[in-house]
Protein backbone atom coordinates (compact mmCIF):
# COMPACT_ATOMS: atom_id res chain seq x y z
CA UNK A 1 0.00 0.00 0.00
CA UNK A 2 2.84 2.36 0.88
CA UNK A 3 4.56 1.52 -2.39
CA UNK A 4 1.33 2.19 -4.34
CA UNK A 5 0.86 5.60 -2.70
CA UNK A 6 4.48 6.47 -3.36
CA UNK A 7 4.15 5.56 -7.03
CA UNK A 8 0.94 7.58 -7.31
CA UNK A 9 2.62 10.58 -5.69
CA UNK A 10 5.57 10.35 -8.09
CA UNK A 11 3.22 10.06 -11.09
CA UNK A 12 1.19 13.07 -9.94
CA UNK A 13 4.33 15.10 -9.43
CA UNK A 14 5.54 14.14 -12.93
CA UNK A 15 2.26 15.20 -14.55
CA UNK A 16 2.26 18.50 -12.68
CA UNK A 17 5.85 19.16 -13.70
CA UNK A 18 4.93 18.52 -17.36
CA UNK A 19 1.99 20.94 -17.22
CA UNK A 20 2.31 23.49 -20.03
CA UNK A 21 3.75 26.76 -18.79
CA UNK A 22 2.43 29.77 -20.76
CA UNK A 23 4.63 32.51 -22.18
CA UNK A 24 4.46 36.13 -21.15
CA UNK A 25 4.70 37.51 -24.71
CA UNK A 26 4.75 36.37 -28.36
CA UNK A 27 8.44 35.46 -28.28
CA UNK A 28 8.04 33.17 -25.27
CA UNK A 29 4.66 31.69 -26.28
CA UNK A 30 4.23 28.07 -25.18
CA UNK A 31 3.77 25.61 -28.09
CA UNK A 32 0.55 23.58 -28.16
CA UNK A 33 0.73 20.05 -29.53
CA UNK A 34 -2.29 19.28 -31.73
CA UNK A 35 -0.95 16.06 -33.24
CA UNK A 36 -3.91 14.18 -31.76
CA UNK A 37 -6.40 16.77 -33.03
CA UNK A 38 -7.03 18.49 -29.70
CA UNK A 39 -5.35 19.89 -26.60
CA UNK A 40 -6.34 21.58 -23.32
CA UNK A 41 -4.77 24.51 -21.52
CA UNK A 42 -5.44 25.67 -17.96
CA UNK A 43 -4.11 28.63 -16.07
CA UNK A 44 -4.63 31.62 -13.79
CA UNK A 45 -3.96 35.32 -14.12
CA UNK A 46 -3.77 36.38 -10.48
CA UNK A 47 -0.43 38.11 -9.97
CA UNK A 48 -0.13 41.89 -9.90
CA UNK A 49 1.97 42.30 -13.07
CA UNK A 50 0.83 39.12 -14.80
CA UNK A 51 -1.67 40.36 -17.40
CA UNK A 52 -1.22 37.95 -20.35
CA UNK A 53 -0.60 34.31 -21.15
CA UNK A 54 0.59 33.38 -24.66
CA UNK A 55 0.42 30.10 -26.56
CA UNK A 56 1.39 29.23 -30.15
CA UNK A 57 0.08 26.62 -32.62
CA UNK A 58 2.44 25.71 -35.46
CA UNK A 59 2.25 23.39 -38.46
CA UNK A 60 -1.30 24.31 -39.47
CA UNK A 61 -2.34 23.71 -43.08
CA UNK A 62 -4.71 25.91 -45.06
CA UNK A 63 -8.27 24.63 -44.98
CA UNK A 64 -7.98 23.85 -41.25
CA UNK A 65 -10.34 25.48 -38.76
CA UNK A 66 -9.06 26.10 -35.23
CA UNK A 67 -11.76 26.17 -32.54
CA UNK A 68 -11.38 27.30 -28.93
CA UNK A 69 -14.07 26.45 -26.37
CA UNK A 70 -14.08 26.61 -22.60
CA UNK A 71 -14.69 29.05 -19.79
CA UNK A 72 -13.28 31.92 -17.73
CA UNK A 73 -14.02 32.23 -14.03
CA UNK A 74 -13.62 35.59 -12.34
CA UNK A 75 -11.72 35.87 -9.06
CA UNK A 76 -11.81 39.65 -8.99
CA UNK A 77 -13.85 41.69 -11.50
CA UNK A 78 -12.10 43.02 -14.60
CA UNK A 79 -11.96 43.25 -18.40
CA UNK A 80 -10.73 40.04 -20.09
CA UNK A 81 -9.85 38.84 -23.58
CA UNK A 82 -9.24 35.59 -25.45
CA UNK A 83 -7.80 36.36 -28.91
CA UNK A 84 -6.17 34.76 -31.95
CA UNK A 85 -3.21 36.40 -33.72
CA UNK A 86 -1.50 35.89 -37.08
CA UNK A 87 2.24 35.17 -37.53
CA UNK A 88 2.73 38.92 -38.01
CA UNK A 89 1.08 39.32 -34.58
CA UNK A 90 -1.99 41.08 -35.93
CA UNK A 91 -5.23 40.27 -34.14
CA UNK A 92 -7.51 38.09 -36.25
CA UNK A 93 -10.49 37.59 -33.97
CA UNK A 94 -11.32 37.41 -30.28
CA UNK A 95 -13.78 37.69 -27.40
CA UNK A 96 -13.58 40.72 -25.09
CA UNK A 97 -15.84 40.87 -22.05
CA UNK A 98 -16.19 42.10 -18.49
CA UNK A 99 -15.87 39.26 -15.99
CA UNK A 100 -17.39 39.69 -12.53
CA UNK A 101 -16.29 38.15 -9.26
CA UNK A 102 -17.20 34.45 -8.99
CA UNK A 103 -18.81 34.68 -12.45
CA UNK A 104 -18.12 32.06 -15.12
CA UNK A 105 -18.45 32.90 -18.84
CA UNK A 106 -18.21 30.54 -21.78
CA UNK A 107 -15.74 31.03 -24.62
CA UNK A 108 -16.48 30.01 -28.22
CA UNK A 109 -13.99 31.04 -30.89
CA UNK A 110 -13.08 29.70 -34.34
CA UNK A 111 -10.97 30.66 -37.33
CA UNK A 112 -10.65 29.03 -40.79
CA UNK A 113 -7.28 29.44 -42.49
CA UNK A 114 -7.12 30.32 -46.20
CA UNK A 115 -4.31 29.27 -48.51
CA UNK A 116 -1.24 31.48 -48.11
CA UNK A 117 1.13 31.18 -51.12
CA UNK A 118 3.99 32.70 -49.13
CA UNK A 119 3.68 29.98 -46.48
CA UNK A 120 1.58 27.16 -47.95
CA UNK A 121 2.45 24.27 -45.62
CA UNK A 122 3.15 25.72 -42.17
CA UNK A 123 0.70 28.29 -40.82
CA UNK A 124 1.01 29.68 -37.29
CA UNK A 125 -1.55 31.08 -34.86
CA UNK A 126 -0.99 32.70 -31.47
CA UNK A 127 -3.48 32.52 -28.57
CA UNK A 128 -3.56 35.27 -25.97
CA UNK A 129 -5.51 35.14 -22.69
CA UNK A 130 -5.36 38.53 -21.04
CA UNK A 131 -6.81 40.98 -18.53
CA UNK A 132 -6.58 44.72 -17.96
CA UNK A 133 -7.67 44.44 -14.31
CA UNK A 134 -8.95 41.87 -11.82
CA UNK A 135 -7.93 38.21 -11.82
CA UNK A 136 -9.26 34.97 -13.31
CA UNK A 137 -8.89 31.26 -13.93
CA UNK A 138 -9.30 29.73 -17.39
CA UNK A 139 -9.87 26.29 -18.87
CA UNK A 140 -9.80 26.07 -22.68
CA UNK A 141 -9.96 23.24 -25.19
CA UNK A 142 -8.37 23.69 -28.66
CA UNK A 143 -9.43 21.50 -31.59
CA UNK A 144 -8.76 21.45 -35.32
CA UNK A 145 -11.16 20.46 -38.08
CA UNK A 146 -10.32 19.97 -41.75
CA UNK A 147 -12.31 21.70 -44.52
CA UNK A 148 -10.18 20.82 -47.55
CA UNK A 149 -11.65 21.93 -50.89
CA UNK A 150 -12.27 19.21 -53.53
CA UNK A 151 -10.45 16.68 -51.30
CA UNK A 152 -7.18 18.38 -52.26
CA UNK A 153 -5.60 18.43 -48.81
CA UNK A 154 -5.68 22.23 -48.67
CA UNK A 155 -7.80 25.32 -49.27
CA UNK A 156 -8.44 26.42 -52.86
CA UNK A 157 -6.41 29.57 -53.48
CA UNK A 158 -7.83 33.06 -54.01
CA UNK A 159 -6.33 33.58 -57.50
CA UNK A 160 -5.87 31.68 -60.77
CA UNK A 161 -2.19 30.96 -60.08
CA UNK A 162 -3.09 29.48 -56.66
CA UNK A 163 -6.11 27.48 -57.91
CA UNK A 164 -6.43 23.78 -57.17
CA UNK A 165 -7.21 21.30 -59.94
CA UNK A 166 -10.76 19.99 -59.85
CA UNK A 167 -11.58 16.37 -60.75
CA UNK A 168 -11.49 15.69 -64.51
CA UNK A 169 -14.68 16.52 -66.42
CA UNK A 170 -15.87 14.32 -69.29
CA UNK A 171 -18.82 14.30 -71.67
CA UNK A 172 -20.01 10.88 -70.46
CA UNK A 173 -20.86 11.68 -66.82
CA UNK A 174 -21.28 14.53 -64.35
CA UNK A 175 -18.52 15.63 -61.96
CA UNK A 176 -19.14 16.60 -58.32
CA UNK A 177 -16.90 18.07 -55.62
CA UNK A 178 -17.27 20.08 -52.38
CA UNK A 179 -15.78 23.23 -50.87
CA UNK A 180 -16.09 25.52 -47.87
CA UNK A 181 -15.97 29.28 -47.18
CA UNK A 182 -15.63 31.24 -43.93
CA UNK A 183 -17.73 34.10 -42.60
CA UNK A 184 -16.13 37.46 -41.94
CA UNK A 185 -14.34 37.53 -38.54
CA UNK A 186 -14.33 33.72 -38.43
CA UNK A 187 -11.58 33.15 -40.98
CA UNK A 188 -9.99 34.63 -44.09
CA UNK A 189 -11.22 32.07 -46.64
CA UNK A 190 -13.68 34.08 -48.74
CA UNK A 191 -12.75 32.95 -52.28
CA UNK A 192 -12.00 29.59 -53.95
CA UNK A 193 -10.47 29.13 -57.42
CA UNK A 194 -10.64 25.79 -59.28
CA UNK A 195 -8.87 24.86 -62.50
CA UNK A 196 -11.18 22.87 -64.77
CA UNK A 197 -10.02 20.58 -67.58
CA UNK A 198 -13.10 19.85 -69.71
CA UNK A 199 -13.39 17.39 -72.61
CA UNK A 200 -15.53 19.20 -75.22
CA UNK A 201 -16.76 19.16 -78.80
CA UNK A 202 -17.92 22.23 -80.77
CA UNK A 203 -21.35 23.52 -79.65
CA UNK A 204 -21.32 21.54 -76.38
CA UNK A 205 -22.91 23.26 -73.38
CA UNK A 206 -21.16 23.49 -70.01
CA UNK A 207 -23.68 23.37 -67.15
CA UNK A 208 -22.46 24.22 -63.64
CA UNK A 209 -24.57 24.21 -60.47
CA UNK A 210 -23.16 25.43 -57.14
CA UNK A 211 -25.45 24.51 -54.25
CA UNK A 212 -24.61 26.18 -50.89
CA UNK A 213 -25.70 25.18 -47.42
CA UNK A 214 -28.56 27.15 -45.84
CA UNK A 215 -26.09 29.44 -44.03
CA UNK A 216 -24.26 30.55 -47.18
CA UNK A 217 -24.89 32.92 -50.11
CA UNK A 218 -22.57 32.69 -53.15
CA UNK A 219 -21.27 34.43 -56.26
CA UNK A 220 -19.76 32.29 -59.05
CA UNK A 221 -18.00 32.95 -62.36
CA UNK A 222 -16.50 30.85 -65.17
CA UNK A 223 -13.27 32.32 -66.58
CA UNK A 224 -11.08 31.65 -69.60
CA UNK A 225 -7.34 31.12 -68.98
CA UNK A 226 -6.72 34.82 -69.66
CA UNK A 227 -9.23 35.85 -67.00
CA UNK A 228 -12.21 36.75 -69.24
CA UNK A 229 -15.58 35.99 -67.63
CA UNK A 230 -17.77 33.78 -69.83
CA UNK A 231 -20.64 33.71 -67.34
CA UNK A 232 -21.29 34.85 -63.77
CA UNK A 233 -24.24 34.63 -61.42
CA UNK A 234 -25.09 34.92 -57.72
CA UNK A 235 -27.66 33.66 -55.25
CA UNK A 236 -30.23 36.18 -54.01
CA UNK A 237 -30.55 34.58 -50.58
CA UNK A 238 -28.72 32.11 -48.36
CA UNK A 239 -29.06 28.52 -49.52
CA UNK A 240 -30.10 29.45 -53.08
CA UNK A 241 -28.18 27.54 -55.81
CA UNK A 242 -26.19 29.35 -58.49
CA UNK A 243 -26.18 28.06 -62.10
CA UNK A 244 -23.89 28.86 -65.05
CA UNK A 245 -24.65 27.74 -68.62
CA UNK A 246 -22.22 28.36 -71.50
CA UNK A 247 -22.31 27.06 -75.09
CA UNK A 248 -19.48 27.83 -77.50
CA UNK A 249 -17.39 26.88 -80.52
CA UNK A 250 -14.91 24.94 -78.41
CA UNK A 251 -11.90 23.17 -79.80
CA UNK A 252 -12.26 19.39 -79.87
CA UNK A 253 -10.56 17.84 -76.85
CA UNK A 254 -9.47 19.26 -73.49
CA UNK A 255 -10.37 22.92 -72.82
CA UNK A 256 -9.17 24.80 -69.72
CA UNK A 257 -11.35 27.09 -67.59
CA UNK A 258 -11.31 28.53 -64.06
CA UNK A 259 -14.30 28.41 -61.71
CA UNK A 260 -14.45 31.12 -59.04
CA UNK A 261 -16.71 30.77 -55.99
CA UNK A 262 -16.94 33.60 -53.43
CA UNK A 263 -19.13 34.70 -50.52
CA UNK A 264 -18.81 38.47 -51.06
CA UNK A 265 -15.83 39.05 -48.81
CA UNK A 266 -17.30 36.97 -45.98
CA UNK A 267 -20.59 38.91 -45.83
CA UNK A 268 -22.45 36.02 -47.49
CA UNK A 269 -22.11 33.81 -44.42
CA UNK A 270 -20.18 30.58 -43.93
CA UNK A 271 -20.66 26.95 -44.82
CA UNK A 272 -20.07 24.26 -47.37
CA UNK A 273 -21.13 24.06 -51.00
CA UNK A 274 -21.39 21.33 -53.64
CA UNK A 275 -20.33 21.86 -57.26
CA UNK A 276 -21.90 19.76 -60.03
CA UNK A 277 -20.62 20.03 -63.61
CA UNK A 278 -22.41 18.42 -66.56
CA UNK A 279 -21.66 18.57 -70.30
CA UNK A 280 -24.68 18.62 -72.64
CA UNK A 281 -23.76 17.59 -76.18
CA UNK A 282 -25.18 19.28 -79.29
CA UNK A 283 -27.56 17.31 -81.55
CA UNK A 284 -26.54 17.20 -85.27
CA UNK A 285 -28.58 15.51 -88.00
CA UNK A 286 -26.32 13.52 -90.33
CA UNK A 287 -28.74 10.87 -91.63
CA UNK A 288 -28.86 11.93 -95.33
CA UNK A 289 -27.38 14.56 -97.58
CA UNK A 290 -30.84 16.04 -98.10
CA UNK A 291 -31.50 16.58 -94.40
CA UNK A 292 -28.04 18.11 -93.98
CA UNK A 293 -28.56 20.56 -96.83
CA UNK A 294 -31.99 21.50 -95.48
CA UNK A 295 -30.46 22.17 -92.09
CA UNK A 296 -27.86 24.48 -93.65
CA UNK A 297 -30.26 26.53 -95.81
CA UNK A 298 -31.04 28.92 -92.99
CA UNK A 299 -27.88 29.69 -91.03
CA UNK A 300 -28.18 30.88 -87.45
CA UNK A 301 -28.14 34.68 -87.41
CA UNK A 302 -26.89 36.56 -84.42
CA UNK A 303 -28.70 39.54 -82.93
CA UNK A 304 -26.49 42.18 -84.59
CA UNK A 305 -26.96 40.70 -88.09
CA UNK A 306 -30.74 40.64 -87.68
CA UNK A 307 -30.70 44.29 -86.53
CA UNK A 308 -28.66 45.33 -89.59
CA UNK A 309 -31.03 43.49 -91.93
CA UNK A 310 -34.02 45.30 -90.38
CA UNK A 311 -32.30 48.69 -90.85
CA UNK A 312 -31.52 47.96 -94.53
CA UNK A 313 -35.10 46.81 -95.23
CA UNK A 314 -36.51 49.92 -93.54
CA UNK A 315 -34.21 52.15 -95.61
CA UNK A 316 -35.34 50.42 -98.84
CA UNK A 317 -38.99 50.95 -97.91
CA UNK A 318 -38.36 54.67 -97.39
CA UNK A 319 -36.53 54.98 -100.73
CA UNK A 320 -39.33 53.19 -102.58
CA UNK A 321 -41.95 55.43 -100.94
CA UNK A 322 -40.06 58.58 -101.96
CA UNK A 323 -39.71 57.36 -105.57
CA UNK A 324 -43.42 56.55 -105.78
CA UNK A 325 -44.30 60.01 -104.41
CA UNK A 326 -42.08 61.75 -106.98
CA UNK A 327 -43.58 59.76 -109.87
CA UNK A 328 -47.14 60.57 -108.78
CA UNK A 329 -46.38 64.31 -108.56
CA UNK A 330 -44.78 64.32 -112.03
CA UNK A 331 -47.85 62.60 -113.52
CA UNK A 332 -50.11 65.30 -111.99
CA UNK A 333 -47.99 68.10 -113.52
CA UNK A 334 -48.10 66.49 -117.00
CA UNK A 335 -51.88 66.13 -116.78
CA UNK A 336 -52.37 69.81 -115.94
CA UNK A 337 -50.17 70.88 -118.87
CA UNK A 338 -52.18 68.69 -121.25
CA UNK A 339 -55.42 70.36 -120.14
CA UNK A 340 -53.98 73.84 -120.73
CA UNK A 341 -52.77 72.99 -124.23
CA UNK A 342 -56.10 71.45 -125.00
CA UNK A 343 -57.92 74.79 -124.24
CA UNK A 344 -55.73 76.83 -126.60
CA UNK A 345 -56.34 74.45 -129.51
CA UNK A 346 -60.08 75.49 -129.74
CA UNK A 347 -59.21 79.01 -130.87
CA UNK A 348 -59.77 80.80 -127.57
CA UNK A 349 -57.55 83.76 -126.75
CA UNK A 350 -57.03 86.08 -123.81
CA UNK A 351 -58.69 88.86 -125.59
CA UNK A 352 -61.76 86.93 -126.50
CA UNK A 353 -62.10 85.79 -122.99
CA UNK A 354 -62.15 89.35 -121.64
CA UNK A 355 -64.67 90.41 -124.24
CA UNK A 356 -67.06 87.67 -123.26
CA UNK A 357 -66.75 88.63 -119.66
CA UNK A 358 -67.60 92.34 -120.02
CA UNK A 359 -70.10 92.39 -122.95
Structure write-up:
With about 350 residues, the protein is of the alpha+beta class. It is about 20% helix and about 40% strand. It has 4 helices and 18 strands. The protein has helices at about 1-15, 290-295, 305-345, 350-359, and strands spanning about 30, 40-45, 50-60, 65-75, 80-85, 90-100, 105-110, 125-130, 135-145, 165, 175-180, 190-200, 205-210, 220-225, 230-235, 240-245, 255-260, 270-280. A 5-stranded mixed beta sheet has the order 1-3-8-5-6, with no helix packed on it. Strands 10-12-17-14-15 form a 5-stranded mixed beta sheet, with no helix packed on it. Strand 14 (about 220-225) and strand 15 (about 230-235) form a beta hairpin. The longest helix is centred in the last third of the chain and has 42 residues, at about 305-345. The chain is elongated, with a radius of gyration of 41 Å. It starts with a helix and ends with a helix.
Amino acid sequence: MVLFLSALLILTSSICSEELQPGIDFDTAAPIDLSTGSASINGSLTKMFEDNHYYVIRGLRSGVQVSITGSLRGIEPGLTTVSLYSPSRARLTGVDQVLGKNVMKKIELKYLLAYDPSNPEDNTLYIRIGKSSGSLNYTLNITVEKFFDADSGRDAGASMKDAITAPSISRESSTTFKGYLAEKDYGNDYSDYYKLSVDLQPRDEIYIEVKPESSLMLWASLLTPDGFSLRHNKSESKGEPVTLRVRGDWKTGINTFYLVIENMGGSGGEGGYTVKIQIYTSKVENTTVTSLSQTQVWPILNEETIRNIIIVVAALVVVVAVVVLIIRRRRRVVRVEEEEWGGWSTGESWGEGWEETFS
